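User:
Hi there, any thoughts?
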Amino acid sequence: MHHVDSSDDPEIIVEDRRWRGVVPAVERLVRRACAASLRGRTPGGAPLAPPESIVLSSDRVVKRLNDRHRGRNKPTNVLTFEPPAPGLPGGEIILAFETVCREAQAARKPVAEHLAHLIAHGILHLGGHDHHQAGEARRMEMEETRVLATLGVPNPWKPRI
């Protein structure tokens, strides 16, 4: 078994314990999704850096952060924060329990699969990937699909019937 240097592992904080009731072994899933995502590259070709922390939180907390930092007074599925000093690796990923569960249910997919997708999405964002323009969005979606395939998660961009 290949052992990854634990200093590269993000701190996983389960702030809302409901995550544990919905996603079995949630910390293990988060670590696997993070490791799979970090095999990718930034748009410029550099290795992706691990986030400093991944926080499994709630809509209430994410709504407050989204309002304070983005001027949007509503919850969202995942927020990413760059580190304060430029050039330092890391950053932070925060996920909202209720929104992630609601989206997974609407898409008829397990919460664990949606969570893995959002972790990949967050890590790619921290690495400089974006989805504001069609070409960028397509590249980011392809990278997310590649990451999830290594975890045995189906393409998140194909609707489930």
Q: What stands out?
A: The CA atoms of residues 58 and 96 lie 4 Å apart. The first strand starts at residue 11 and ends at 14. Residues 6-150 form a domain with the Collagenase (Catalytic Domain) fold (CATH 3.40.390.30). DSSP finds six helices and four strands in the chain.
